[in-house]
UniProtKB/TrEMBL annotation:
NCBIfam families registered for this protein in UniProt: PRK08591.1
Source organism: Marinobacter daepoensis
Biotin carboxylation domain ranges (all copies): 1-447
Protein name as annotated: Acetyl/propionyl/methylcrotonyl-CoA carboxylase subunit alpha
Domain of life: Bacteria
InterPro entries: ATP-grasp, ATP_grasp_subdomain_1, BC-like_N, Biotin_BS, Biotin_carboxylase_complex, Biotin_carboxylation_dom, Biotin_COase_C, Biotin_lipoyl
CDD domains named among the record's database cross-references: biotinyl_domain (cd06850)
Length: 662
């Protein structure tokens, strides 16, 4: 077995690989960018090498530097993880040329599957069912339009290279086709260096079901159950589970055998995933093959009891597969939720910021957390915004769903926006509990997945007041005279009662509270109501009784900003301080950057008359494009940035004079 490997990746997958390698007695070499100097994977590794500036193109995508570091450190093999160079044919070939084992398939297999159009031709020859569409080399616009008409609508435009939902557009009719094609090609070229597209019929109620395959160097291949990854946003997976609910044993077997045929058709070696679209009538169609370990591999590990990274290392060393097909057994049900820094209320816009407060559920045989960050780390614009993967297992799907709901309630983050509340609502929603899964799940159940707060506003304000006052008390010095009224940690006044004011800002609204303190309780006046509050704060845990209702919350108070966590929900407020001289950053009709990122395209110029909803600027953040549209009719009066510029969240991009619109 190898005695030293290099991990050409970062974040949670790098940490995940290091854990298994260390358990097997293998030393690990990490690489890190300027932004990751203090990252968790760097601290976990036996040694680490600086590789370049923060942008991935100058660090984690520098194949030449990684090869050089592997040789310098004496690493015998390189594990690419997923993303970055994991499906890069040139990198796999460079490893082979330098006598370094690439822990993955041969470069020829990556090349075969790297082009989705070529992959479909190979699958057709291997007898794997395909979705109707076009996957030819001719990319002339007229031909693509003709093939779109032939395929029928709705259809899916998909980049022939890469994955992760980039370079993909759903097109409902021919009127949308040209704009969608241009956007998908631009995004694909930016992400993968290849603008070529394929066209597929877009199934309206499909499920995304994928098969985990494994092949050794002797040509043996098996499948390790299936995963359902239907719940997606922006064509990227959000929830994954194994096994896929509701599949017959015959379908499982047929799909698994088709996946193995697909892998053996390209002489595959190692871990791979064959992805299928599964239709309501029970038919399934090949979608693509990912020639690497998948993000969601832990759910397969949880139900099979196998360590897939260990399998990768053994197969790369030349050992046979640890199990035969007949020996593969599954038990129970596993679900994975991807914890992202993003804003679900703003169409899942990526978020950046510092993990000011981070508390995760306790790990056990039922709960697993795969992460590459710790409290205080920054989620930056340079890399994927995934914070962690939360995985649960139990004997049945119903029990696993309950486990996930509970685990999400114990996952608490403050300092930046996350999708935890959305995930909690999604998993707890009745359609998910009843396994009504399609790739349109989020759009179909929008109202259920974006519910109102579980906390009544007045009650939340009372809890916030209790948390703030109790934390202030805990910070006060202890008096030498415990009997002195001046030493009491309340608002005692001689010969009078004093109800201290507290103004809390929630969103754009301000709420004025009056609080009368007693020795062991408070009276909180909110609007025309009075609440009797008993509160006890232990670190971040507040136990409270409000008018006889006992409940508890966790919270984090930082620079007068408070976040309370309650049953998967969050309540955010700020202790209001009057400020003067504040001027609005932008006048009416201006457009501000919704996140940190770079300007990809400016589709207007000064003097242009624009209409509401017209795309004016296209920004890129975390490898995804975002269209900034005109909020109203008007005339462009100023443009503040050029294509290629980096901009910060809130920066004014374009000014529109709405008074000059005709």
């Amino acid at each position: 077995m190898f005695n030293k490997i290099l991990i050409a990746n970062r974040g949670e997958i790098a940490c995940r690989i290091i854990q298994t390698a260390h358990r097997m007695g293998i030393r690990c070499v990490a690489v890190y960018s300027e932004a990751d100097a203090n990252a968790r994977h760097v601290a976990m590794a036996d040694e680490a090498f600086y590789i370049g500036p923060a942008p991935s193109s100058e660090s984690y995508l520098r194949a030449d530097k990684i090869i050089e570091i592997a040789k310098e450190s004496g690493a015998q093999a390189i594990h690419p993880g997923y993303g970055f160079l994991s499906e890069n044919t040139d990198f796999a070939e460079a490893c082979e040329a330098n006598g370094i084992v690439f822990i993955g398939p041969p470069s020829s297999a990556i090349a075969a599957m790297g082009s989705k159009s070529a992959a479909k031709a190979i699958m057709e020859d291997a007898g794997v069912p395909l979705v109707p569409g076009y996957h030819g080399r001719d990319q002339s616009p007229d031909l693509l339009r003709a093939e779109a008409e032939k395929c029928g609508f709705p259809l899916l435009l998909k980049a022939v290279a890469g994955g992760g939902g980039k370079g993909m557009r759903v097109v409902e009719n021919m009127a949308e086709f040209d704009d969608a094609l241009a956007a998908a090609q631009r995004e694909a070229k930016n992400a993968f260096g290849n603008p070529d597209m394929l066209i597929e019929r877009y199934l309206t109620q499909p499920r995304h079901v994928e098969i985990q395959v494994f092949c050794d160097q002797s040509g043996n291949g098996i499948y390790l159950a299936e995963r359902d990854c239907s719940v997606q946003r922006r064509h990227q997976k959000v929830l994954e589970e194994a096994p896929a609910p509701g599949l017959s044993e015959d379908t499982r077997k047929a799909m698994g055998e088709a996946a193995v045929r697909a892998a053996q058709a390209i002489n595959y070696v190692g871990a791979g995933t064959v992805e299928f679209l599964y239709d309501v009538d029970g038919s399934f169609f090949f979608m693509e093959m990912n020639t690497r370990l998948q993000v969601e591999h832990p759910v397969t590990e949880m139900v099979t009891g196998q360590d897939l990274v260990e399998w990768q290392l053994k197969v790369a060393w030349g050992e046979p597969l640890p199990l035969t097909q007949d020996q593969v057994k599954t038990r129970g049900h596993a679900i994975e939720a991807r914890i992202y820094a993003e804003d679900p209320d703003q169409d899942f816009l990526p978020a950046t910021g510092t993990l000011r407060y981070l508390s995760t559920p306790d790990e056990s045989a039922h709960v697993r957390v795969d992460t590459g960050v710790t409290e205080g780390d920054e989620i930056s614009i340079h890399y994927d915004p995934m914070i962690a993967k939360l995985i649960v297992w139990d004997d049945t799907r119903e029990q696993a769903v309950n486990r996930m709901v509970q685990a999400l309630e114990h996952y608490r983050i403050a300092g930046l926006k996350t999708n935890i509340r959305f995930l909690h609502a999604a998993v707890d929603a009745q359609p998910f509990r009843e396994a009504e899964l399609t790739t349109n799940f989020i759009a179909s159940h929008h109202n259920l997945l974006f519910p109102k707060s579980r906390l009544d506003l007045d009650k939340a304000l009372v809890l916030a007041a209790g948390f703030i006052l109790e934390q202030r008390k805990s910070a006060e010095p202890v008096t030498a005279d415990p009997w002195s009224p001046f030493g009491r940690k309340n608002s005692w006044r001689m010969n009078s009662e004093y109800a201290q004011p507290l103004t809390l800002q929630v969103g754009d609204g301000q709420h004025e509270l009056k609080i009368l303190e007693r020795d062991d309780r408070y009276q909180v006046f909110v609007g025309g109501s009075v609440y009797h509050l008993n509160a006890k704060l232990n670190d971040d845990y507040l136990q409270a009784v409000i008018n006889g209702h006992r409940l508890s919350v966790h919270g984090n108070l930082h620079n007068e900003e408070l976040v309370l966590f309650y049953e998967g929900d969050t309540f955010k407020c700020t202790v209001y301080r009057e400020t003067y001289g504040f001027e609005e950053m932008a006048s009416e009709g201006s457009l501000a950057a919704p996140m940190n990122g770079s300007v990809v395209a400016i589709q207007a110029k000064v003097g242009d008359t624009v209409t509401a909803g017209q795309t004016l600027v296209i920004m890129e953040a975390m490898k995804m494009e975002h269209a900034i549209k005109a909020p109203a009719d008007g005339v462009v009066s100023e443009i503040f940035y050029a294509e290629g510029d980096q901009v910060a969240e809130g920066a004014e991009l374009i000014a529109i004079d709405t008074g000059e619109a005709e």
